[in-house]
Amino acid sequence: MVIRNIAPARLSRLTVGICLISAALVVSGCSTSRSNKPLTTGSIPRAATNLESMSAPELARAADSIGQAYERNPKDRDVGLSYARVLMMTGRNTQAHAVMQQVAIAHPTDREVLASLGKTQAAAGQLEQALSTIRRAQTPDRPDWKLYSAEGAVLDQLGRSAEARARYRMALDMQPNDPSVLSNLGMSHVLSGDLKTAETFLRTASQQPGADSRVRQNLALVVGLQGRFQEAEQIARQELNPQQAEANLDYLRSMLSQQNSWKKLAAKDDKTKKTN
User: Fold this and answer.
1) How far lies 252's CA from each of 47, 58, 136, 184, 189, in Å?
2) Would you give the end-to-end CA distance of the chain in angstroms?
3) Separation of alpha carbons 182 and 169, rounded Å
4) What domains can be seen in the chain, in order of their start residue?
5) What average pLDDT does this structure show over 4-24?
């Protein structure tokens, strides 16, 4: 396996970004109002809907549109949550954190706000603060499975894998076979170098209703790290339009190139084709 010669610390750096993708999926999945009904767009621009299916230019336009709504009323809870979410998806983590800090000042006890704040703290590298914030959002009498999974993602980044997996199991007890939690659990095993177990969890996650391209992107990475690049490419292209597929492949190439694996895997595939 390609992963064998990678030191655990380097593996952690290689995969931490993928785990954050999963964590973002979990926390952004908290999009329910205080009454547990689906959020209505209200003052949120229509651009805030279906962000996961957007291309990079579409996300940029959505960020501008939602940003204008945020500027009109920075205390608006739902607009602030949507704005931070799209900022994270476009890589503007520092700005997303600043937005959530302002929203949290206006809504200091709102569980979803605290969860989103914790996510932006984690993306900004403030892991201990993120863990504290997410735990503050959790309540023993009304536990939230999304918060357990988000907590697990932060614990994984802190190197506390046993605690992280315990949180994922707690989340799965409440929400069996949730693809985002299974994806997080799979990536937890990537961090410890157990690619076979990771692939098992990620394949299960990818087969669940509601699994999106981020879950398949994680699976593609794990398959690619094991030297099966053709299969990884097929997974990365699955159910995506050409632009999104290329973006996924660019991401996959970027991750694999960090350990100088891309050329090795491509050469291996070419050799296999000629042999067959």
Assistant:
1) 27, 21, 35, 18, 18
2) 21
3) 9
4) 2-194 (1.25.40.10)
5) 38
Residue-wise pLDDT tens digits, 183-211: 999 999 998 889 999 999 999 999 999 89
Query: Contact, 178 vs 214, CB < 8 A?
Result: no
Task: Tell me what percent of the residues of the chain surpass a pLDDT of 70.
Answer: 70
Sign of the CA dihedral with 189 first, then 194, 199, and 200 last: negative
Which two structure tokens, joined as six digits, stand for 182? 């299974």
For residue 189, count other CB atoms closer than 10 A to its CB. Answer: 21
Tokens of 24: 């973002």
What does the alpha-carbon distance between residue 152 and residue 26 come to, in Å, rounded to a whole number? 11
- β-strand partners of 38: 32
Cα separation, 67 vs 154, in Å, equals 28
Residue 269 and residue 263: Cα distance in Å, rounded? 10
